[in-house]
Amino acid sequence: MLKRISFFVFFSVAMLGFSQQYNIPAVSPKQAVEQQFSVSKISIEYGRPAVKGRKIFGELVPFGQVWRTGANEATKITFGQDVVFGGQKVKKGTYALYVIPQEKEWKIILNKGVNNWGAYSYDAKDDVVSTIVPVKMMNEKMERFTINFEDITDEKLNLVFEWDKTRADVPVEIQNVEETLQIIDQLKAIKKIESDIRKKNDTKK
To answer: Are 199 and 177 in contact (CB under 8 A)?
Structure first.
């Protein structure tokens, strides 16, 4: 009897250690995307559902209804500096990112409800800004919903949404372009001075 109890305890401890090392694969795995942009960065946290042979937009994600822009919790986007999001001025900070899809265009919404679960507790009163962008149809299918950054410069980039064969782009630009570019020049000058100092110190060794 004592041997059985000892074996049970050993087996339980071993299984606990195993379960702490591994996770059951998520249906819609979380992803965090971070992009250095201008003098700060933009970061996004979202869930990535898969097509799995289903019709996505117009069925799984109905037209004309608020969508969480992914799966599970509301998608969050954080701006490290003030930006112009789809033509609308936005203060730096973290926002919930929602979409109201239509067949030919999407309404992209930044909302205060960063702790919302999906779109169930979405409240339009908490909308900060919204913008409407056209939808593009892709030749190749994107199996998992993807948010990415493209066409990145010091002053602007495109925030890209892709799922199934549907794509939508939102232009994001920095505010106060001239002031920001001056800061960038100053930072480059400081980096050069630091580099010169290191080189002089290295030659003395």
So the answer is: no
Tokens (6 digits) for 31? 């992803």
| Residues in Cβ contact with 91 at an 8 Å cutoff, skipping those fewer than 6 apart | 79, 82
Span 190-202, pLDDT tens digits: 877 777 777 777 7
Q: Give the residue among 109, 104, 170 at the shortest CA–CA distance from 134.
A: 104
Q: Report d(CA 44, CA 78) in Å as an integer.
A: 6
Distance in Å from the first CA to the final CA of the chain: 71
What would the mean pLDDT of 33-46 be, rounded to a whole number? Answer: 95
DSSP-assigned letter for residue 25: P
Does the pTM of the predicted model rise above 0.85? Answer: no
Contact assessment for residue 95 and residue 116, using Cβ atoms and an 8 Å cutoff:
no
Q: What is the DSSP letter of 103?
A: S
